[in-house]
Amino acid sequence: MSERKRLFRVDRCDFCGQCLNRCPVMQLPIDEARKRVPVGLINPSKNRLAGALRGTPTVGVGNHWWYQLTPADFQACQLPNPTGRVPKPTPW
Questions:
Q1: Cross-strand bridge partners of residue 41
Q2: Short-list 31, 38, 33, CA closest to 8
Q3: Largest CA distance in the chain
Q4: What letter would DSSP give residue 75?
Q5: What share of the chain is helix, strand, coil (3-state, %, to 5)?
Q6: If 0-12 CB within 10 Å is exposed, 13-18 middle and 19+ buried, where does residue 14 land?
Q7: CB 44 within 8 A of CB 66
């Protein structure tokens, strides 16, 4: 039995900017997505990326990017204290 491969369908893609392998319509492997559009990946943890998510900026169409969030990124996005009538917890 041969393995069926999903092909990239431009007519079904709206280039939403999300990692295309998570797209419910396309279900495109990330290596295939990198051949077609620039892919940006944001790592929210201190852990290294899984091997399949690593790559080089110039593969395929190029202009791919990676970013690892830092504590400063999270701190810059905090709501003011208080927010309405709700204060931040003491340890914050």
A1: 66
A2: 33
A3: 63
A4: H
A5: 25, 10, 65
A6: exposed
A7: no
For the entire predicted model, the pTM comes to 0.59
CB burial of 41-71 (b: ≥16 within 10 Å; e: otherwise) equals eeeeeeeeeeeeeebeeeebeeebeeeeeee
Burial class (CB in 10 A: 0-12, 13-18, 19+), 13: middle
Model confidence pLDDT, tens digit, residues 55-78: 899 999 999 999 999 999 988 888
**Residue 23 CB contacts under 8 Å (≥ 6 apart), including other chains:** 13, 16
Kindly give, in sequence order, each residue whose CB lies less than 8 Å from that of residue 21, ignoring residues fewer than 6 positions away.
27, 28, 29, 30, 33
> Pick from 39, 38, 23, 29: which is nearest to 7 by CA?
29
Q: How far apart are CA 59 and CA 20, in angstroms?
A: 16
